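Sanity check

After download, print the first record. It should look like this:
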Amino acid sequence: MALKARSSPKVVEIFKVLYDMPSEDDLVMQLQGLFWGFPPEHYPGGFIPPQEGAPLNHGGYYHWSQMWMHSDRGRSTTWPPRLQCTLVLEDVSLYDHGFVFLSKSHYYHDEFFAAHPPGTLELEPGPTLPPATPGAPGTMAAQQQQQQKAEEEGKDNYIQLTYDNVKYFEQRGCQWKKVVAPKGSIIIWDSRLIHSTCAPSRGRPY
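Expected C-alpha cells:
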C-alpha cells in the first residue's frame, strides 16, 4: 500500500517538477514505511502522559515527552540535501497525531553539527563496524570496506536530539510548529529540518 501510494503518478509528477527531471526513470525513491496509529481513546493507556516539567509549545497541545525531534541528514555533506515527504491518508487536526517541526531550523543545521562534533551528542549512534583493512577490488576486505561505508552513510541519516540540543535552535528564533493537513495532502521538507511526529491530545475532537 505504501509503495503504491508513493509511486502514484500525482506524487511522481511533484518530484519531477521539484528536481527538474524529464522522466520518472531519473528519480530514486526511498520507502521508509507506512504509519497507522490506533485511536488512543479506544484502549487503556493509549495517551502518552506528559512528563512533569517537560517543555510544551505555546498552545499546550503537545509536549516534548510525546515526540522525538531529529535530523535525517545528520552529518552528511552531500549536496543538495534530500527532500523528504509524508502522504497524509486521513485529516490531521491540531490535536491529532501529526508532523511537528522547528521552523527555519534547516538554516542552522550545518552550523549546529559543526558546533557539536562527533561524540558530543548524547543520542547520536556510534560506528557500527570496526575499521576495515584496505584490500584489492573484489576481495573480502574490499567488500568489508564497502559495507562499512554504507553503514556509516546510513548512520548519518538519523540523529535524535535532546531538548538541550533543541534549545540551540530555539535561541536562534526557531519555533515549534505543527502541520494541519487534509486527507490527500503531501508534506515535503528539506532533510536538514529538525522534525518529529507528536502524539494525539487527550480530549481532541474526532
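If your output differs, re-run the checksum step. Summary of this record's structure: Residues 128-132 have pLDDT under 50 and may be disordered.
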